[in-house]
Amino acid sequence: MRHLLSAAITIFALTTTAHAGDGAGKPATPAPVADKKPAPAKTHLTWYGHAAFRIDTPAGKTLLIDPWISNPSNPNAKTDLKNLTKVDLILITHGHSDHVGDAVAIAKTTKAKLVSTFDLGMALVAEMGYPKDQIGFDTQGNFGGTIKLLDDEVAITFVPAVHSSAVSKDGVNTKDGGAPGGFVIAIKGGPTFYHTGDTDLFSDMALIGKIAPIDVMLACIGDHFTMGPGRAADAAKLVKAKQIVPMHFGTFPVLTGTVADFAKALKKAGAGKLHEMKIGETIEL
After folding, report:
1. Whole-prediction pTM
2. Residue-wise pLDDT tens digits, 61-78
3. Edge-to-edge, what's the strand order for the sheet holding 89-91?
4. CA 191 to chain CA mean position, Å
5. How far is Cα 186 from Cα 215, in angstroms, rounded to an integer?
6. Domains defined along the chain, listed by start
7. pLDDT digit string (tens) for 3-60?
8. Nearest 10 degrees: Cα torsion 161, 173, 109, 102
9. Cβ neighbours, 10 Å, residue 30
10. What is the DSSP string of 192-204?
11. Residues 126, 135: contact at Cβ < 8 Å?
12. What span, in angstroms and rounded, lies between the C-alpha atoms of 215 and 157?
């Protein structure tokens, strides 16, 4: 009886194995493995020092903001300028030379279009030689207006600033540069930035945070010509920014605001999270 039971079990096992395959005696076909979806592309932010930033979008477009790449705080300025061979948009907050910076030279090399207020755009063409065929109604606006560019991947809203604006080719003779401002830059599938430009604290900053939740606020903290660390912290609280990257400090001796003082002020104000960037650093968002 024991031998009969063993034989029956063996026969049952062989029969089960055969039926489990694609045919008698053939191994089973493995279940298909689902294709892995590639990770979504990210937005990258690079700081060149002072108020100069680069944004690379998930679709591979490049924006420069206030591109004074050759500022004295940037030890890699020559290399950085040489590597800027593909730029789609150049955004300029106001006409002062430390914000216009290398914009004209970069524009001539890359064919980048200018995003600015209409008055500043006209002044940059007339006085600084920005290529006039790279400026138009599609990229020019004024405060309160929003323009969509780069196949609607980028939405840029013009917002005011409390400062001044003038354009000068020789550093002596100045021409009107329109009103100073900042930008709210919303990246499709990515973060929303607020570049303050040069400004003091003003109460209507609370309205800027209502345009869209601000993921990253690029805030001037240097004092003397702009708000210092304390007032910048209050600005961050009004905007309700999630992260704040300090800028426009230390480039010249008179810009005395420090990141350490700003960190203390942010903590006291109960504002957003400080993200201190180093010159030349790129972060992924």
Report:
1. 0.87
2. 999 999 999 999 999 999
3. 140-141, 113-117, 89-91, 62-65, 52-56, 44-49, 282-284
4. 8
5. 9
6. 44-279 (3.60.15.10)
7. 433 444 343 343 444 444 444 445 555 555 555 666 779 999 999 999 999 999 999 9
8. -50
9. 6
10. EEEE--S----TT
11. no
12. 15
